[in-house]
Write a structure and sequence with these properties.
Strand order of the largest sheet: 2-8-7-6-5
CATH topology of the largest domain: Aspartate Aminotransferase, domain 2
Radius of gyration: 21 Å
Distance between the termini: 39 Å
Number of domains: 2
Shape: globular
Largest sheet: 5 strands, mixed
CATH class of the largest domain: Alpha Beta
Structural class: alpha/beta
Number of helices: 17
Length: 459
C-alpha cells in the first residue's frame, strides 16, 4: 500500500468539522440546486472543492500579518513583496491584485478584442471566461497524452508545439495579442510542463513576435516536478528552476491563493514599461492603487512570505506525496483517475466511472453530487458543465474530451485519515455506480455557469 508522507509541521490550532446525517445532506443538496458551490461550508465534512485560498498559513505568515503597513500608497509591505517578486520571478514591473481572475481581467481588457485568438496548453475556467467575455477565442494546444488517462507521460501538461505553430500560422500572429502556458495544467489533471517544453513554447511565440505569458498559479509544484522528473535538474534548487522558467516569458499572472499559500491575493507582472502603464491605469480604475491592488497591507506581507515558503522542498515533497497517496489508494480500489498523479489534486475519470451517463447529462456533476451525498465530501466537476460551449458558427454543443471530478487538496489542512475516508466513500459509490443518474440544468448564466447554475437529477 502507498505510504502517506509524514507532515513537515506540527498542528498548532484545529478547526472543528462535523458530518451531518444522510438526510440532512440530501436536503442541503436540494436547497443548493444540486450545485456544490451553493452548499453551506458548515454542511461539508471534507472540503476538496478547491485548493485556492483554503490552505493553512504558517506561523511566519501570521507573524508577518501583524507587520502589515496599511498606508494607501507606498506601503513598506508592498516593497517587501516587490523584493520577493524580483527574487523569484525577475520581472521589471508588477502589480498586486486581489486574486488571479482580476489579473486575467486586466490583461484581457487591455489586449483582447473581438476575434482575438489566445493559445495556451489548456486555459482554466476564469482565464477562458475572461477571454470570451472580451470577444476572444481561447484555444487549447495541449499534447494528446493529456487526454489519455492511463498515459504515464511525466509531463502531460506540455504544449503541442506543432499544433501551436500551426494555429499561429492559420490565425495570423497579428490576431494573437498574447499567448499563454499554464503551469501546472489545472484543467488537464494538475499535470506539469517540462522546462524543455516551456523553452520551446517561448521560442515559437517569440518567433512570431507574440508576447508570452505564464499562468503560474502552481509554479512551485511545477518546479518540483521538473526537479523530480527532468534530467539535468535534479541538483538545482527550486528557486533556480523558477528563475529559469520565468526568464523565458514576457509576463506572468498568478492567483497567489494557490502556491503562495494565502487566503487572498494575486499579481500581474510584465517586462514592457508601456504595457505596465496601461495595466496600472486599469488597476487603479478597477482594483486599487498600484502598491496595494485591492489587498490590505497584511495580505501583501502574507503573500511575500508564502511565495518563498511555497518553494520549500521539504514542504513540496510532503505536498506531492500526499496527493500521490490519495491517487494510488483510489487506483488500488479500482477508481479510475488521471495518471500519473499531479500536484494539487486528484482527477477522477467520471466518464469511465459512469459510462452510462452521456456528456449532455453531466457525468462529472453526477459523481460529484453522489460523493457529497455519500460522505459529505465536496469536490468539483471539470467537464461538460464547466467547459462545454456552443460552436460560434454552427451552434452545435462542443463537449470537452474528459469528464472529471477534481479533488483539490488544501495545503497543510487534511491528514491521512481524512484521505482514507475519501477512499472509503468512493468504494461505497462504486458498488452502486449503475444506479447513479445524470442531471439537467434548470438555470445557467452566460459565463462560468458552474459557479451558479441550478440542476435537477434525471429520473
Amino acid at each position: 500500500m502507498q505510504q502517506h508522507p509524514p507532515e513537515p509541521f506540527r498542528i498548532k490550532m484545529v478547526e472543528p468539522i462535523h458530518l451531518i446525517s444522510p438526510d440532512q445532506r440530501k436536503k442541503a443538496m436540494q436547497e443548493a440546486g444540486y450545485n456544490l458551490f451553493a452548499l453551506k461550508a458548515e454542511d461539508v465534512y471534507i472540503d476538496l472543492l478547491t485548493d485556492s485560498g483554503t490552505g493553512a498559513m504558517s506561523q511566519y505568515q501570521w507573524a508577518a500579518i501583524m507587520q502589515g503597513d496599511e498606508s494607501y500608497a507606498g506601503a513598506r509591505s508592498y516593497f517587501r513583496l516587490k523584493q520577493t517578486m524580483q527574487d523569484i520571478f525577475g520581472f521589471e514591473y508588477f502589480v498586486p491584485t486581489h486574486q488571479g481572475r482580476a489579473a486575467e481581467n486586466i490583461l484581457s481588457a487591455i489586449l483582447v478584442r473581438s476575434g482575438s485568438i489566445i493559445p495556451s496548453n489548456m486555459h482554466f475556467d476564469t482565464t477562458d471566461a475572461n477571454i470570451r467575455a472580451r470577444g476572444g477565442d481561447p484555444q487549447n494546444c495541449v499534447i494528446t497524452d493529456a487526454f489519455i488517462t492511463k498515459s504515464t507521460n511525466p509531463f502531460k501538461g506540455n504544449m503541442d508545439i506543432e499544433k501551436l505553430e500551426e494555429l499561429i500560422r492559420k490565425t495570423g500572429p497579428e490576431n494573437i495579442p498574447f499567448g499563454c502556458i499554464t503551469i501546472t495544467n489545472n484543467a488537464g489533471g494538475g499535470q506539469p510542463v517540462s522546462m524543455k517544453n516551456i523553452r520551446e513554447t517561448s521560442h515559437i511565440y517569440h518567433k512570431y513576435n507574440i508576447p508570452f505569458f505564464i499562468d503560474c498559479c502552481r509554479y512551485a509544484e511545477n518546479c518540483y516536478f521538473i526537479k523530480l522528473r527532468e534530467p539535468g535538474y535534479e541538483h538545482k534548487t527550486l528557486l533556480e528552476i523558477a528563475n529559469e522558467i520565468f526568464q523565458t516569458a514576457d509576463g506572468a499572472f498568478m492567483s497567489a491563493k494557490k502556491d503562495a499559500i494565502v487566503n487572498i491575493g494575486g499579481f500581474l507582472a510584465v517586462r514592457d514599461g508601456d504595457l505596465f502603464q496601461k495595466i496600472s491605469n486599469e488597476l487603479i480604475l478597477r482594483e486599487g492603487f498600484i502598491t496595494y491592488g485591492g489587498l490590505a497591507g497584511r495580505d501583501l506581507e502574507a503573500m511575500a512570505v508564502g511565495l518563498s515558503e511555497g518553494l520549500d522542498e521539504a514542504y513540496l515533497t510532503y505536498r506531492i506525496g500526499q496527493t500521490a497517496y490519495l491517487g494510488n489508494r483510489l487506483i488500488e480500489n479500482g477508481i479510475p483517475i488521471i495518471e500519473p498523479t499531479g500536484g494539487h489534486a486528484i482527477y477522477v475519470d467520471a466518464g469511465s466511472f459512469l459510462p452510462h451517463i452521456p456528456h449532455a447529462e453531466f457525468p462529472g456533476q453526477a459523481l460529484a453530487a453522489a460523493l457529497y451525498l455519500e460522505g459529505g465530501i465536496r469536490g468539483i466537476e471539470i467537464g461538460s458543465v464547466m467547459f462545454a460551449h456552443p460552436d460560434p458558427q454552427t451552434g452545435e454543443m462542443i463537449y470537452p474530451r474528459l469528464e472529471l471530478v477534481r479533488l483539490a487538496l488544501p495545503r497543510r489542512v487534511y491528514t491521512q485519515s481524512h484521505l482514507d475516508y475519501v477512499v472509503e466513500a468512493f468504494k461505497n459509490i462504486a458498488q452502486r455506480c449503475q444506479d447513479i443518474r445524470g442531471y439537467h440544468i434548470l438555470y445557467e448564466p452566460q459565463f462560468l455557469r458552474h459557479f451558479t447554475a441550478k440542476f435537477a437529477p434525471l429520473l
